[in-house]
Description:
Radius of gyration of chain A: 25 Å
Largest interface: A-B, 50 and 54 residues
Structural class of chain A: mainly alpha
Radius of gyration of chain B: 24 Å
Low-confidence stretches of chain A: 1-17
Largest sheet of chain A: 2 strands, antiparallel
Number of helices of chain B: 15
Structural class of chain B: mainly alpha
Strand content of chain B: under 5%
Oligomer: heterodimer
Low-confidence stretches of chain B: none
Helix content of chain B: over 70%
Helix content of chain A: 55-70%
Mean pLDDT of chain B: 85
Amino acid sequence: MAPNPSSEFAFEPSPSVPGVAATEGRPIEAVGPWSSARARLRRNRTAMTALAVFATIVACCLAAPLWADQVAHVGPDENNLTGTFERGGKRLYVVTPPPETKPVGPGWSGRYLLGADKNGRDEMVRLLYGGRNSLLVGFASALITTVVAVILGLLAGYFRGRTDLVVRTTFDIIWSFPVLLLGISLGTALAIGGLHLGPIDIESGSLWIPILVIGVIYIPYLGRPVRGQVLALREKEFVEAAVAQGAGPLRIMFGELLPNLASTILVFGTLIVANNILTEAALSFLGAGVQLPTPSWGNMIGEGVNLLSTAPHLTIVPGLAITLTVLALNVFGDGLRDALDPRAKVRLR
Amino acid sequence: MARFAVRRLINMAFVLFAISVVTFLIFYVFPGTNTSAQVQRIAGRSSNEVTRAQVKKDYGFDRPVFVQYERLVEKFADGSLISYSNQTNVRDEIARGIPATVSLVLGAAVIWTFFGVLFGVLSAVYAGRWPDRVLTVLSMIGISLPVFWVGALLLYYLTDRIHLFPPGGYVKLTEDPWGWFTHLLLPWFTLSILFIGFYSRLLRSNILDTINEDYVRTARAKGLSERRVLVRHVLRNALIPIVTLFGLDFGAAIGGGAILTESIFSLQGVGQYAAQSVGSLDLPPVMGTTLYAAGFIVLLSAVVDIAYAYLDPRIRLTA
Lengths: 349, 319
């Protein structure tokens, strides 16, 4: 396709933007939608900062065992109710003896950098391990939501008729439950009994339970807009052209329609990870998500709120971690939307 | 019109049936269909032999699956579902919690609508300048905060430490209106934060879209003041999606969205009842709140749809 001279980049050649520079003497290079979107995203300093912040958080959480082994020399589940440790040349109780029983607060020492919790466990180590679990639940559930919703949306929108009726009804039924309550119900029922359904056999306490629960409850939130877009896209000429070339339903759905949905999916995918981290926190806080003693940012807050008066760091620290992570993802998702398709109406909830 | 209403009601009946089946699946089938495990789930972990035998008979755990389903629906319909860990009737407990939940959500809805619209308009009017930037940053933070965390910190630092607000709990409006108001002030704001963020961002982008419409140019061309153009022409149209959204959010907040705020501030509403039951792994109340809340939302959306169709003939003709 010939480059469009009126495209927004043609008149502002900038050497820092790859593939856009229209230097004299050379023909103007064509710019695809993806590379121009990437260039726009790269110039959005706020979004790139958010991405860097998020990447740092992920890297820190992945390095949890390194911190536990090399710096803190203690695992995430090791209680230490009676011990003492060294900080700044002084020996301190990890948890002051009864009747006070006050866990030590944050301070400058490799061990107990962020203080201890009520069992004398290292809060920093738990924060990193908890972050691994929270991020894992957030990502894996977002992946489930996205993959299932896109496949169902494609099938419903492409085949219409009975397939559409079944898919639409399924979405409607999930949709009619208040989303948090549905998550709580599933989370509680499965936290007690595990999931035993045909070939699926998951014990209670497994991380797979919150992943599946959170993954399922948000399916209609992406499935509905995808179905709508597919219904409109399948009438376009390029689909007709593909049919004329002899393409079957699978090739049309995944080869022709799916690439057109990519920007919606990417933007939604980013925002749903943020949303799912918040949902995980809420469910775990109530006891219907990640089950203790496995740490997650949500259940760490749940343990901390009862000790706000003696050890506020147990509540403040994991909450800040959640806020920072979710904020970074939301800001990046916003930038991604601006770069890919500013008019895209992707909404959660 | 009558045809539309009948069709909508049939659809509603089907969805009600479907949610009862889904609830049954969640609590009876997904966690495994081993009879003694099923009985223990309903009766609670610390239940005795007598209770378990009674639960087994009551819920039909020794009978086929469809009998179990029928028994469960019966319990929901006649309100005889009880919690075995404290021998209370689930429907009565939910009914007792409704005033607190409605008070919380109504007040919060007023606050989030007011500030959502105010911030959204300010953001759009000053688009690109510093008030817009400040508000954008604030709303971004607002939608990224865990509600229960903010609630817990506000409660602790503003009531326990400096006694600015009364401690948590719910005071009945009929007994002490001022106490009702002061006790709810902090929960209202906590619940509103997220929605203020969402609404102001949505309204900002809606206004900026509307401002380029032809009729806005026409309104300006005929010499209307900027203020009148904004309020009468731009805002009126930009608010339409917000109104639709408000209905959805309000229903969702009543039907379970306020659960975290309620349990942090111990407001003794429906949400706190559900949260406590989750904490003690007491399934009948969790089952009850979920199904009643979903039923309420399904009913509400049917009523709203029929009301819309009555007001706007286009809907009943195309749907």
